[in-house]
Amino acid sequence: MTWRRGVYSVFVAVPLLVAFAGPVVARSAPSHRQAPFGPSEWSPFGTDRLGRDVLAAALTGGVTFILVAAATVLGAYLLGFLIGVTAAAAPRARLDELLMRPVDVLLCLPSLLVIMVAALRSQGSAVAIACAIGIALTAPIARFVRMAARDVAHGPVMDALRMQGESRAYRYGRYAVRELARPLAADLAMRFTAAVYFLASANFLGLGFETTSTDWAVSVAANRDALTIAPWSVLLPAGLIVLLVVGINLLADDLLADPRTLAVRAELRARRV
Hints:
The structure is a single chain. By secondary structure, the protein is mostly helical. It is 74% helix and 0% strand. It has eleven helices and no strands. The chain has helices at 3-25, 54-60, 63-88, 93-108, 111-121, 126-153, 156-163, 168-204, 216-223, 232-255, 259-272. The protein is globular. The mean pLDDT is 81.
């Protein structure tokens, strides 16, 4: 493991550890409310607008945020993957057009507008907002998967395997999966970032979880007016969100880098030395 990969892993591990182990630690925090935006009895980070300890709120506000974002992007990717692969492998152009034209229509719709409409129509239902985020993500995912899978499904290697009499399970179960694994894994990391962005935006606008929730995005929105007098009430949850998103993308880039590119870079560094 390189030092960069270790740093990126720490970036991801810190917010995940805070989110999933935090509720256990937060049990020792005082249950009574303290003075808003003042010092806290339990941690040096002070209190938020409701008099809750900022650290305790951050420890309990991440698990729902992360699980909803992860479930949303996985559901959207499953649907987008099925649409994209089916369109790419379609033997007739008519099926490809039938699948992709509705996707193009969805791409034209502003994602935040779709989420806001779903939130207002459902009176702020978290399930409806998550479904709206999934719909907003499905269209670009389907378009990307189709683009990535089209060259694989109709490329010369696939034609050669077909002429050699290889079964469909071998062609698509081994060759196609091997060729698509790296780009799709990298795209999945980016889509998780988009899901976090949409979910955080919805909560920041007051369209997601309850405004009294300790959710990280809600905490940033609720305490933003006190940034100058109680900065940790905003910086701590915002920093955890940024650390998670940046860490996932940097770690995915490092793990999924093309080995040939890495070999060329190593050779260039060796020449410089």
